[in-house]
Each structure stands twice: as structure tokens, then as C-alpha cells.
Amino acid sequence: MIINNSNKQLRSRAQELRKNMTKEERHLWYDFLKNCPYNFKRQKIIGSFIVDFCCDNPKIVIELDGDQHYNNTECLIKDSKRDEILSKLGYRVLRFSNYEIQHNFTGVCDEVFAVAEKFR
Fold first, then answer.
1. What domains sit in the chain, N to C, each tagged with a CATH number?
2. Is the pTM of this model over 0.85?
């Protein structure tokens, strides 16, 4: 796995993102992932990316997407390329919309846990 922890800008940005999580990120972190039996990290650097949540065993990345990820062709292409790179590094990328976090939180948690159980 490529980890670029020497990049001070990425580290600084990851710290900033951890301090300023979105409402949906806070909800998923504090109400599920923080106490999940799998060791998830927030805003982890993988290569040149900062992912929302990451578990190294099993290798899972969780991305929470706002409207811009669905309404912007450039964003969709960028997300697709990013997912492809992360997949080549062995990660299973799970993407959830903010709407899913707000309206189907239990379903999101169930899916994350099921994937973790399947690939542990």
C-alpha cells in the first residue's frame, strides 16, 4: 500500500477534515464506526487521496457523498477513477449518499458490517 504521510499538505488537510466533519460524517462516526468491532480511521491518507473512513483489516473505504458527487459529471469521473485506484490497492469502496445516512442509517450500518464480516 502506498501511504504518503510525508506530504505535509495532505496531513494538514486530513487533520482539518477530521476537525470539521460534515453532519453525516459525524453521525456515522460517533453513532457506529467509532465503536464498531472493526478498526476504522477518519480522513485517512491513502496514496494521494484522503478517504472519509478506512479500515485496513478488512480493507474497506467508506465515502459519504453530497449532491455534488451525483450532479456533476466531472465529480462522477473523478470518483470513478479514485475508486478504481483504491480497488487496485485492495480496498472495497463503499459509497453512501448523505441522504442514505439521514434516511436509512441502520441500512448503511448493516451494509458496512456485512461487508466487513464477509471480507475479514
1. 8-119 (3.40.960.10)
2. yes
